[in-house]
């Protein structure tokens, strides 16, 4: 009866009264009427059906109300992400995604992650001016914060900036200022909840505690549910014979892993064979956690909630417990492990002749590390223990270079940007910094993973199967226009292409990236600014291509024990390629799921990036606390009316406030310079300064410097006249204000 009712509402061109529904469904019996009323009541409570003020029923999809997930920003504003699905004329499920923007005064108490009902009736052409009318499901179950007191009442205020309006009352007495985890037990009003303290943290000066606390402020939870811990007991710690049924036996193949020296969660292993036709049979063997973690099981729910593993300040908050990520789901050497293997025939020039994805079992011969492999590839020195693998590594490296050259030729973008890499002592404190490098071994692995990810996406596309695609849009034309103005202002104009061409043509963007190479200390500054012009890569149920990689088909498949996007693609492969039973049902099921999962994992990836940067900023500030009063050499990397951003030679960044400069200054946005009105030094992008550490605060994640002297000036002749005119105008305005 429910299906008949829904079909009736679907076909209706206007709202239907209850009497009209009874009439059209030929309902006469009282018990049938009661059943229909109960079904309608349930559908209304689930927000699948809308009951209007004049008591007419509509399918919610036919109204201006839409169900979605609310994502807030730190200011309180946000967007509701809505996934709409329908059947086309051929009976295929079609889904598309929309974002509706909501101002903070229209959120109706919604919290980041809540399932909500949004009214789009007042939206403008940019999907703004919408309002949340109901909260369907709260995403909240735990809060991390500090204990506060109001008279005899103790409560916990959330440290998550996106949930800082949440306060949880805790019964009894507590220690004011203590850092705690609170599990919610009930709801209150006006942003207040009731909860109990389920975890108390150590002293805030403990290094591990600092990192955890920073993670919690970004909504990252390091715990696993009790049900997940129970589930672990039923997962074997070795591959049993019955687990190998249906798997291709790769245990006699020479396979190996290449990771960092301290890596314990190894997702991927490689193999390569020379074929009689001169081609190579490349195997990329990926760990298979989907075999051990059923969809919607407790471990899966925990993994989905986390979205990915988090690598913060030398510490790991894993997506799955270590028993899995470092054990049965890690491709450890000399033990059997289940895999999903991508087997590709590749020509010496890097063309893929054939590709397939199969369930496999491997026994990795050797755990290699990047340092040793780089030594072999760069010096021809044979590291002890690698004697049997040198030819494999050199063959892989030659192929990796061919693949990279093909990507670049097609228009893939690579930026020459140095990244800060902390060096830690045994207690987890930063003692120095170095630059993170991408060498031969790292590039080898990257190219093989790119190849496997692309191959899996192509296989799924060819079979018309759903996928969590990794997509990347074209860069912002407006930001590119500003960037070209910036290059002209600092004396290195780029005139080969305009912003419109750079946005649409990857080769034009490549030319721009090459133009800013070999610019000394400016290269890193210019690369960082150009990266900010790029769109952010994300996950989507729709395949729109990956602009940055110049690939029409791309997904994330190769890290299933640390990215939920990847294990989702594994499950699609399992349900729609390996298991053809109930195929059409499985396809329809996953077509809907990928649109629900994609925005969530895009969000958790953003959280991971933000948290990683916040932890790095905190640790940099902690390091500089030990150097207050000391002098360093620094390069000016940004300027504004509020001050100067500088970068030390070790890539630590900090600020010089305008008020700490002698005399009066104005900022000229046309020339990106800070101009002195007092005949003191003016400042330009690229200036080299001697600076002194004025202050540093780990808690505020801030570093302040003062200028000692300018060592090198980057002033350019073509901006002098503009700066002089701006200076004269500023002085005239100051004189006029004084006369008033």
Total strands: the figure is: 33
Largest sheet: 5 strands, antiparallel
Strand adjacency order, main sheet: 5-4-3-6-7
> Could you say which structural class the secondary elements and strand pairing correspond to?
alpha+beta
The DSSP helix count reads 17
The N- to C-terminal Cα distance equals 81 Å
Average pLDDT for all residues:
89
DSSP helix fraction = 25-40%
Give the overall shape: globular
List low-pLDDT spans.
none
Give the percentage of residues in beta strands: 25-35%
Rg, alpha carbons: 29 Å
How would you sum up this structure, described in words?
It is a single chain. It is built from 17 helices and 33 strands. It has a five-stranded antiparallel β-sheet, covered by helices on one side. 36% of the residues are buried. The termini are far apart.
Outline of this structure?
With 740 residues, the protein is α+β, with helices and mostly antiparallel strands. The protein has 17 helices and 33 strands.
Can you lay out the helices and strands and say which pair or pack?
Blueprint (H helix, E strand, L loop, with lengths): L1 H10 L6 H7 L5 H16 L3 E3 L5 E3 L5 E8 L5 E10 L5 E10 L12 E5 L11 E7 L4 E9 L2 E6 L8 E4 L8 E9 L4 E9 L6 H11 L8 H7 L15 E2 L6 E4 L8 E7 L5 E8 L10 H9 L3 E3 L2 E3 L4 H7 L7 E11 L5 E12 L2 E4 H10 L10 H21 L8 E6 L5 E7 L3 H23 L6 E3 L5 H13 L9 H6 L1 H10 L6 H10 L6 E3 L23 H15 L4 H43 L5 E10 L2 E6 L4 E5 L7 E4 L4 E4 L6 E2 L3 E10 L4 E11 L4 H23 L1
Parallel strand pairs: 10-12, 13-20, 14-21
Antiparallel strand pairs: 1-2, 3-4, 3-6, 4-5, 6-7, 8-9, 8-11, 9-10, 11-12, 15-16, 16-19, 17-18, 19-20, 22-23, 24-25, 26-27, 26-32, 27-28, 29-30, 30-31, 32-33
Helix pairs in contact: 5-6, 9-10, 15-16
């Amino acid at each position: 009866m429910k299906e008949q009712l829904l079909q009736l509402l679907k076909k209706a061109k206007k709202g239907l009264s209850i009497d009209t529904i009874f009439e059209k469904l030929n309902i006469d019996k009282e018990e049938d009427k009661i059943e229909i009323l109960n079904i309608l009541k349930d559908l209304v409570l689930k927000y699948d059906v809308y009951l209007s003020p004049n008591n007419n029923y509509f399918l919610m999809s036919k109204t201006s109300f839409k169900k979605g997930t609310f994502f807030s920003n730190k200011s309180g504003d946000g967007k509701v992400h809505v996934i709409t699905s329908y059947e086309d004329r051929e009976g295929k499920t079609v889904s598309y995604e929309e974002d509706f923007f909501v101002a903070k005064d229209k959120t109706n108490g919604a919290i980041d992650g809540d399932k909500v009902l949004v009214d789009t009736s007042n939206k403008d052409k940019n999907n703004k001016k919408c309002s949340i009318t109901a909260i369907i499901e709260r995403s909240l179950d735990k809060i991390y914060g500090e204990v506060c007191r109001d008279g005899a009442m103790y409560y916990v205020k959330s440290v998550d900036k996106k949930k800082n309006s949440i306060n949880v009352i805790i019964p009894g007495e507590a220690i004011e200022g203590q850092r705690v985890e609170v599990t919610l037990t009930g709801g209150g009003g006006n942003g207040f909840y009731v909860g109990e303290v389920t975890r108390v943290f150590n002293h805030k000066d403990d290094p591990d505690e600092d990192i955890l606390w920073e993670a919690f402020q970004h909504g990252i939870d390091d715990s696993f549910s009790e049900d997940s811990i129970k589930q672990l007991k039923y997962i074997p710690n070795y591959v049993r014979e019955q687990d190998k049924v249906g798997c291709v036996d790769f245990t006699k193949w020479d396979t190996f892993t290449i990771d960092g020296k301290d890596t314990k969660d190894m997702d991927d292993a490689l193999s390569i064979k020379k074929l009689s036709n001169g081609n190579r049979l490349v195997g990329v063997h990926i760990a298979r956690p989907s075999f051990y973690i059923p969809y919607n099981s407790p471990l899966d729910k925990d993994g989905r909630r986390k979205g990915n593993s988090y690598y913060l300040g030398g510490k790991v908050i894993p997506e799955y417990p270590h028993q899995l990520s470092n054990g049965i789901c890690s491709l450890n050497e000399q033990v059997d492990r289940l895999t999903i293997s991508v087997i590709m025939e590749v020509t010496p020039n890097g063309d893929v002749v054939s590709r397939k994805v199969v369930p496999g079992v491997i026994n990795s011969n050797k755990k290699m590390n990047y340092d040793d492999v780089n030594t072999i590839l760069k010096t021809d020195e044979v590291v002890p223990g690698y004697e049997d693998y040198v030819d494999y590594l050199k063959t892989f490296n030659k192929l990796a270079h061919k693949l990279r050259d093909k990507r670049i030729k097609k228009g893939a973008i690579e930026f020459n940007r140095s990244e800060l890499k902390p060096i830690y002592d045994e207690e987890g404190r930063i003692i120095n910094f170095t630059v993170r490098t991408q060498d031969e071994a790292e590039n080898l692995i990257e190219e093989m993973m790119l190849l496997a990810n692309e191959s899996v996406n192509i296989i799924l596309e060819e079979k018309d199967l759903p996928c969590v695609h990794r997509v990347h849009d074209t860069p912002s034309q407006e930001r590119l226009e500003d960037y070209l103005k910036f290059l002209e202002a600092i004396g290195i104009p780029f005139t080969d292409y305009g912003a419109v061409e750079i946005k649409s043509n990857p080769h034009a963007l490549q030319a721009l990236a090459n133009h800013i190479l070999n610019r000394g200390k400016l290269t890193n500054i210019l690369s960082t600014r150009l990266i900010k012009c790029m769109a952010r890569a994300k996950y989507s149920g729709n395949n729109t291509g990956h602009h940055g990689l110049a690939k029409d088909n791309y997904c994330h498949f190769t890290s299933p024990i640390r990215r939920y996007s990847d294990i989702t693609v594994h499950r699609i492969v399992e349900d729609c390629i390996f298991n053809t039973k109930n195929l059409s049902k499985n396809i329809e099921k996953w077509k809907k799921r990928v649109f629900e999962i994609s925005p969530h994992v895009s969000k958790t990836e953003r959280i991971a990036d933000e948290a990683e940067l916040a932890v790095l900023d905190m640790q940099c500030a902690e390091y500089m606390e030990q150097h207050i009063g000391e002098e360093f050499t620094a390069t000016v990397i940004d300027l504004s009316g509020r001050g100067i951003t500088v970068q030390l030679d070790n890539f630590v960044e900090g600020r010089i406030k305008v008020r700490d400069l002698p005399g009066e200054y104005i900022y000229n946005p046309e020339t990106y310079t800070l101009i002195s009105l007092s005949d003191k030094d003016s400042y330009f992008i690229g200036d080299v300064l001697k600076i002194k550490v004025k202050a540093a605060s780990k808690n505020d994640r801030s570093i302040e410097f003062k200028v000692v002297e300018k060592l090198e000036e980057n002033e350019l002749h073509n901006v002098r006249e503009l700066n002089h005119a701006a200076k004269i105008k500023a002085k005239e305005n100051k004189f006029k204000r004084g006369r008033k």
